[in-house]
Design brief:
This protein is mostly helical. Helix content is 56%, strand content 0%. α5 crosses α6. It is elongated, with a radius of gyration of 24 Å. It starts with a helix and ends in a 12-residue tail after the last helix.
């Protein structure tokens, strides 16, 4: 949880986006916001999850949450995307279709996703059964 000074400092960067540039109003909204969440049993992990709980009483808090939800924390994902595409789109693979390139890029970029090879093979065999007859060779 952030203290009020840190939030006010961050809000000063986006002062032109807020409905008011008065820090006392933003401080009051922060107090209301914290008091509102003390009584709730709901636990949220991100600014996006918190947005539906905003009321019209705290319009500046809602604007700040919308801004913070859309800002990237780092630029690692776009950089990883470009380096992945550079590796995938080599001379030998320059003839691959855009759909396959997108699929390979997404699986490489989102490495944290757990993929089950058996499910992928079953899905592939259902989509294109004429390409390959898949049998269980482990038996």
């Amino acid at each position: 949880m952030y203290d009020d000074e840190t939030i006010l400092k961050a809000a000063s960067i986006y002062a032109q986006d807020l409905s008011t540039d008065d820090n006392s109003i933003l401080k009051a909204e922060l107090r209301i916001w914290r008091h509102q969440w003390k009584n709730k049993q709901i636990k949220t992990d991100s600014a996006i999850d918190t947005l539906p709980h905003c009321t019209t009483v705290v319009p500046n808090i809602k604007i700040l949450l919308q801004l913070f939800a859309t800002l990237p924390v780092t630029s690692a994902t776009p950089e990883r995307t470009f380096s992945t595409l550079k590796r995938l789109k080599t001379y030998l693979r320059s003839t691959m279709s855009e759909e396959r390139l997108n699929g390979l890029a997404l699986t490489n970029i989102n490495k944290k996703e757990l993929l089950c090879e058996d499910e992928i093979i079953k899905l592939f065999s259902k989509k294109a059964p004429r390409r390959m007859q898949l049998e269980d060779w482990s038996k």
